[in-house]
Specification:
single chain, two-stranded antiparallel ribbon, two-stranded parallel sheet, 8 helices, 219 residues, globular, mainly alpha
Length: 219
Amino acid sequence: MTNLNQSSSEFHRDSKSISLVERILKRMIDIVLAIIGLLISLPIFAVVAIIIRLDSPGPILILQKRVGKNGELFDLIKFRSMFADAEMNSHNILGDNPINNSSLKVRDDPRVTPAGRALRRWSIDEFPQFWNVLCGDMSMVGPRPEEKWIVELYNEAQIQRLAVKPGLTGPMQVSGRGELDMDDRLALELNYINNFSIWNDLKIIVKTIPILISGKGAY
């Protein structure tokens, strides 16, 4: 099992070192795109809020603890796409060790509301995470942020996903999304980390747009 209190150097053991210039450029891109994303999304937020309120009881926005870079916990913000008691049923749906399952996504997940299915199909439920990017907890591109109880089940190879900030989009989202099994997802994310470049980040961002429009692989 993974110890989230281990030193940050442990998370970088097998990953390529990202230069200071690359880190600065990546952060600048994050800030600019997060601001643009929030401004563009504001009119959508009002409509989504009404739809969620009419669809099922519960909050419009939710905060969920996620594991970020070097195992640091942060509050991920998103539109609620599940019923209010969904968190209590997670173990029943995913099982005690979801790492052994083919995917962490569940088709026809009973925890997801009718409106939530539409929000998830086009990833609208994740638009508030532009705020997480702006605050520095996330980046525009990186491995998807995971829940603490799942990360604690990671092995020595899987823990290397925590070497960089989690991303609003990333190699998983442009290469199959929920249709990927765990091994393929891990290979993509580790390859992204070990071969990091700003150019690759920009390519992933561009590829994300048609994926969002199509809704392929999202459920």
